[in-house]
Design goal:
heterodimer, A: about 325 residues, mainly alpha, 16 helices, B: about 325 residues, 18 helices, about 75% helix
Chain lengths: ~325, ~325
Amino acid sequence: MSLNTKPVPAPATPARQVPAPKRTFSFRDRWADSAFNIAAVTILTASIIAVVYPLYFIVIASISDPNAVYEGKVWLFPSGVTLEGYQRIFADSRIWNGLGNTVVYTVLGTAISVTTILFGAYALSRKDMPGRKILMLLFVITMFFDGGLITKYLVVRDLGMLDTVWAVVLPGAVGVWNLIIARSFFEHTIPGELREAAQMDGANDFTFFFRMVLPLSKPLIMLMVMVHVVAHWNSFFDALIFLNDDTKYPLQLVLRNILIQSDVSSAGTTGGDIESYAAAQRIGELTKYAMIVVSSLPLMIALPFMQKHFTKGTMIGAVKS
Amino acid sequence: MSRIAAGTTPAPPPAAPNRSTQRATHRKPLPLRLKRAARAWQLYVLLLPSLIYIAVFKYWPMYGVQIAFRNYNPVDGFTDSPWVGLAHFVRFVNSYQFGQVVGNTLWIAVLGLVVAFPIPIILALLVNQLQSERFKKFTQTVLYSPAFISTVVVVGIMFVLLSPRSGLVNNAIQLAGGEPVFFMGSAEWFRPIYVISDVWQNAGFAMIVYLAALSGIDPALHDAAKVDGASKLQRIRHIDLPGIMPVITVLFILAIGNLLNVGFEKALLMQTNLNLPTSEIIQTYVYHAGLQQAQFSYSAAIGLFNSVLNLVLLLVFNTIARRANQATLW
């Protein structure tokens, strides 16, 4: 507490403070700070290991001999390298089918969401739009109260969207939080003078939005595209409740059925005896490791590239309004 | 985040001209206001898709919530199904699952707040103090990366690493001479695994917001404190922590507002028949009763119970924050 007010009383006793205590201060200071530095680096290094090791283990387990993994011989390095897990995945039509569906849902869903959000957020960012406050309120209310899972399901059913692409891409299309971020981006990066000048030159709201605002909003568009690509790539729940036809399942739902519902039959159990059953099961485990790697790899590779934009996005959200 | 926090305090300057224009519009006759709205028609066209979206996928379901007080049947729909009042709520409160399901939900929610909420703050304070920019960047990137792994895969990772036969964790336990534990099939382990995996996946991402707030703190404060001989720990306590307090408060209130909604998908994925006594939370119960057993009205009532409880918590904590003169949501 006293530290906050220190700058004020400090000059009152300059003579006493300067000569003697300086050495003790710096000594104690250095000791405490280096202890702190060591503690900080230790804690953070431990956290990094805790995050990385499980992922690293999965990667090495995915290319190791399943028996070695089973017997607990794989810790730091792969043993008895095999690519069988990956071969099995690439031979599995469910995975390819799921991947294809996910790509369709991701592209379509992202296009719909980003367009709707950019359009809506720009309109809401215009302070001269009559009724702006009430309209904004309509959106904000939905952040704090919603009709719940069951009524959402019934609405989608009544719309006849069950088992269609629309059930996956439409019900979650516009996140109000994203709308607010986009709105504050427009409010802070599109100067009112620019619009006045454009209007002077005869531009209407459409031409101004498409010709001036959108080209100036590339960072925002990048952010919105990435947020939605990641969300669609990773989502499974809407597909779980709205899709029955398993040829329409996205990758994550296929993964869930194999990874979590422990679909052992997928490993190709044919032999009747326990030996071959156990072997098949081990191969099944191997396939799971490989599956985790394959499904997470695209986003992990894209991460360093995306991080810059996501951090920027946090900043956009943090701009004062 | 701090945008919300900031929005409440510096109101006067921008509000002043706003208010005068508002007064002006109020004084203007209706035809003139309509004319002005008509001139902005292109803006309304841009807004239209979003409005249709919330009307169909937010307000229509909200309107449909009345089935919680009815016996829904597809023929009569939301509005004409027979009215039964609070019958579904009474049935839920009296059901034997009520205590268990509500208790499980609160357990997970409270553990999340007590354990998972402070960790990103601590991490951000530590990372912020690092001297090496490269180590700082590296730490951020690594800690943040699990947020991009899907919930399905994270739960899949749990199942393979915690597998009683071949999992990494049980191999280590056996190496140390212990007995293998069937983690995913045990009610006692559900909560620890749930919370630990939550921290593992999300703490790094949540940390970014706090780091952004920390970078906004005036370095002069730190310099002044250094001159006065303050140690790093003291500077964290007296400069950094108060500096990001508004952000912490807002995020805390938001976390409260979502208290009973978070982690539903993960809980659902983690459920096995054996851990149901601790893993069945309100929302998974709604899913099972509603969508799997088609008891639409009953489960809609439970969902409504959940939403209302949530809203009440949010209002209460926002009021407390306002009384305490902290940043608030509105």
